[in-house]
Amino acid sequence: MITALPSVDDFQAIAEAQLPLIDVRAPVEFQRGSIPNATNLVLMNDDERHQVGLCYKQSGQQQAIVLGHQLVQGAVREQRTADWLDFVKQHPSAMLYCFRGGLRSRTSQQWLSEAGVTIPRIAGGYKAFRQYLIDTLNQTAQELAQGVLQSWVIAGRTGSGKTALLAQLAAGVDLEAMAQHRGSSFGGRAWPQPSQIDFENQLAYRLIALNRNVGRQRIFEDEGRNIGSVHLSAELFSAIKAGHRVMLEVPFDSRCQHILQEYVIEGQQEFGGLAPWITHMQSRFVRISKRLGGVGYAKVCQAFEQACHQQQLNHQLEAHLGWIVYLLRDYYDPMYDYQLQRYPQPIMIQGSPEELMAFFNQLKD
Q1: Which residues contact 226 (CB under 8 A, 6 or more apart)?
Q2: What is the DSSP letter of 345?
Q3: Residues in a beta bridge with 152
Q4: How far is the C-alpha of 62 from the C-alpha of 45, rounded, in Å?
Q5: pLDDT digits 0-9 by tens, 43-66
Q6: Whole-model pTM?
Q7: pLDDT tens per residue across span 335-364
């Protein structure tokens, strides 16, 4: 019999404290989306959950519960309980949850209690917590639109170092980091992007932290609504873009060096060597081939191949500046100029990273 065990419904406190969580749902559920700082330590695996679900549809809840206990007993139960105990030992403030805060989380709590450990479960489970995070995003969009919160957008040409500047700002919201994507045609990483749900949940957590720790300023990089395979809601995107705009200005040579460092040096490290990185980059060139035009596409591909050949011969990277210069000068800069003309917004200040940093530091709420 399952005894009464503690439950918690203060989602804000959980998010602000960045509490470690045990997600006892099946892996297939966890992969669709989870609460930040959660570790998937299941009560039932995907196959067991599937069998119990079929039983529930065919024979009802009581028979499904019986089957669940039959599938997860003996050594299986002992191992899963041991996994939870080990996690709690490492994270004494941990809580746990299932989908709705129902039978699975209560069962997990009970087994832990029988093993001598009592931890709270999240009331309403993942479903209720997820709704709280969605509400946070919607509320932020409203507060930005109404001026309760103030949005600032850092604009600047490709390679200006907008992300590096954003990382130094207490009120910065790094959407690219949450999206695991650099936000450009060449911005894909060597690992998959998060699900749309996980991206939104991480963003909500960041906004909750800012609500507690900083004033009313919220600072974003100038992004499109889509960042790789994930996106912002139309309401939040519009509220962000309507904010004050600042322009980061960096010399062209410095921008080229930024691209060399981030996309070539760090990119090759990410992809595990030159060969897989070349494959990745070539697929990106194909993606923008129509915009480059036949002559432009051939030119940049030739410069890229020559640079890779030089790197293979003498391990030097300077030749990569050839295709980088071409892309910045003939592709990214004209596209950026077009966007500025299409969406003209006043620039509050323009300057170097140091000048913009000083500007943001003197802002008053």
Answers
A1: none
A2: -
A3: 219, 244
A4: 20
A5: 999 998 899 889 888 988 888 888
A6: 0.91
A7: 888 887 776 678 999 999 999 999 999 887
Distance CA 180, CA 187 (A): 9
What local confidence, expressed as pLDDT, does residue 59 receive? 87
Lowest mean pLDDT: which of 30-34, 133-137, 185-189, 205-209? 185-189
Cα–Cα distance, 20 to 133 (Å, whole number)? 17
Kindly report the number of other CB atoms within 10 A of residue 124's CB atom.
19
For residue 68, the model assigns a pLDDT of 83
- Catalytic residue chosen out of the listed positions 55, 98, 256, 308: 98
- The sheet that has 7-8: what strands, in order across it? 7-8, 121-122, 95-97, 21-23, 38-40
Answer whether 248's CB lies under 8 Å from 161's CB. yes
Domain 7-123 of CATH type 3.40.250.10: yes
> Can you tell me the distance from the alpha carbon of 338 to that of 334, in angstroms, rounded to the nearest whole number?
6
pLDDT, averaged across the chain: 92
Residue boundaries of the structural domains of the chain: 7-123, 131-361
Hunting for tokens 């299986």 — which residue is that?
A: 76
Which amino acid is it at 261? Q
Residue 304 CA to residue 310 CA, distance in Å, equals 10
Report the amino acid identity of residue 246: V
Structure tokens at 322: 């050839």
Token output for 105:
């989380």
Q: Which position has the token pair 């690219």?
A: 176
* 301 has catalytic annotation: no
Under DSSP, the state recorded for 188 is B
Which amino acid appears at position 285 of this protein? F
